[in-house]
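Hello,

Our lab assistant flagged a job as stuck in the queue for most of the afternoon. It eventually completed. Since we weren't sure the result was trustworthy after the delay, we are filing this so someone can double-check. Below is the sequence as submitted and the structure that was eventually returned. Let us know if re-running is recommended.
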Amino acid sequence: MTAPSTAPAASPPSRKGRWIEEWDPEDEAFWEEKGEKTARRNLLFSVLSEHIGFSIWTLWSVMVLFMGPEYGLTPADKFFIVSMATLVGAIVRVPYTFAVALFGGRNWTIVSASLLLIPTIAAFVVMEPGTSFTTFLVCAMLAGIGGGNFASSMTNINAFFPLRKKGWALGLNAGGGNIGVPVVQLVGLAVIGASGGPRVLLGIYIPFIVLAAALAAVKMDNIASLKNDTGAAREAVKDGHTWIMSFLYVGTFGSFIGYSFAFGLVLQTQFGRTPLQSAYVTFIGPLLGSLIRPVGGWLADRYGGAKITLWNFVGMAAATGVIVIASMQKSLPLFTTAFIALFVLSGLGNGSTYKMIPGIFHAKAVAKGLEGEEAAAYGRRLSGASMGLIGAVGALGGLGINLAFRQSFLSVGSGTGAFVSFLAFYAACFAVTWAVYLRRPAGAEARATAASGAKPQLSYVEV
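-- returned structure --
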């Protein structure tokens, strides 16, 4: 496995197409003269492709609302269908992360956008009563490839922008992609409201997929110096913080994507909502969660990512506790309000946890005795290598959420049991965040370390 990095390297003469041979966004003169304009153009069309990728990935969160009794599927079957879409979306993030350096950002955006036609057309063909459960399951798994677009898009845009602009660019790129979730649900609401069938929804997206691929071909560029860094990836995999942050990202992004798939189905199954009634509210949570993600990053910049993440898990646990009460009392208004609040907090946590990653690896560089640009370069190298893996593992949280709902409905006929397990998980995330990134060493231990002249252990309070 390799990790993308930008290092001076001339592209082979045989390369055809829109390749940029020299790219140095850290050079302010270069950036102001032509770099910024090129980077912004690539960002715009990267967001478009990633946005549609998220929509196709979460397509089955809408499709299952169309599947009434005539389809012969139980609620457990439907939760399993959306679980498989989540699983594939998480797995493909790893190879998608490294495809950009192998094929070029523009080239891979064309390919990844075009691949979205496969699950969309497949679903268009089979979406009718009488189709087997296995066929629906395979189509949902194919839709999972849309989840990989996030990883390749983030890797590509990371290479275009200077360090001082990465936070804004990556936040905009991620947020624009995440909004694909509520958009597909809004389009589904419109289709249901107009008494249209699922094939209408699929037919709407097919031309937009073609448009995204065509615009990528015409408007985007490849960076010749972008290459995969095998050493950084190996070092990131061995680093404990990569896995700790993966665990925390399961709690934030895993919750966001898992609930995005499950919200409408829970309303329909537990509270007897019709497809139209479910669709009226399912888009609100993902929309607010997507829009607030940059705010989480901004708060992390100002107050420290670990602090914001810690208290965010407190909020997520509190909202989940309210959901458990509402579920037991069968209070739909309270349940819906708390669920939307949980979406907002998951989006906030997405921003704060992702902002922790560069700070952690920069702090490790300082602990190694590195300074200045050398420390910054080490931090960029390791954080870049770890982000793809953290994003992939985090997305697996969506799989866990939908499997937990499936088991809960099979066992007790409601989602209450699943929410109790989520509450326990958020408590574990709180404990890990505090213990690893906020707990200060005991005063006596710190004084003894200083007296011995040894290097102190890192404090990640400012992460």
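-- support follow-up --
The delay was a queue issue, not a problem with the job. The result is valid. Residues 81 and 274 are 19 Å apart (CA to CA). The first helix runs from residue 28 to 57.
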